[in-house]
Protein: tRNA uridine 5-carboxymethylaminomethyl modification enzyme GidA
Amino acid sequence: MIDDLVTKGTNEPYRLLTSRAEYRLLLRHDNADLRLTEKGYEIGLITEERYHKFLAKKEAIEGEKQRLQSIIIKPSAEVQELIRSLGGSELKDGIRASDFLKRPEVSYQHIKQLVPAAGELDFETEEQTEIHIKYEGYIEKSLQQVERLKKMEDKKIPENIDYDAISGLATEARQKLKEVRPLTLAQASRISGVNPADISILLVYLEQGRIARIK
Structure:
């Protein structure tokens, strides 16, 4: 919000929408400490005690993830009964505990019923372990998109590109792009009314190379 107001300004009451946040799958409230504590420590805002607690939490999360990846859950009567009660499909073969957790109906608490605990973990560590494992594929795709957009940040946009020929752009984004005529993707991403989804569509269009131009 601060970045928007400082760099873009506003001609109307500011509407704080989740769709305005770039990479919102990564910028979650539950992982704020994992994203920012390291940076806070580097500039002197975090005490040694808090920093060591943060490192211990990170280590605990990674340790639990690795532990669940190494444990095989077999299709025992207890397991099958739990799956039936959750409305899922019964197991035919053994499955890694981490893969079992990726099922939409299964939570970390269900895993604890089937797998002996390695130790007492606090709620936040359990929560992050579950999120990291359950949404691993989506998070990885989002990280790849971040890297992709970083590399393409300075990609040039033809001055006479025909935005009306780009399908999928939101109407507001199309109007703003036609009005401002940005020279790069970086400039386009900072235009008020042009959301990350619009930038992704524009990026794909530019990569395809079949660019329609205004005659």
In short: The chain has a mean pLDDT of 88. The first helix runs from residue 2 to 7. The chain has two domains: 1-152, 155-208.
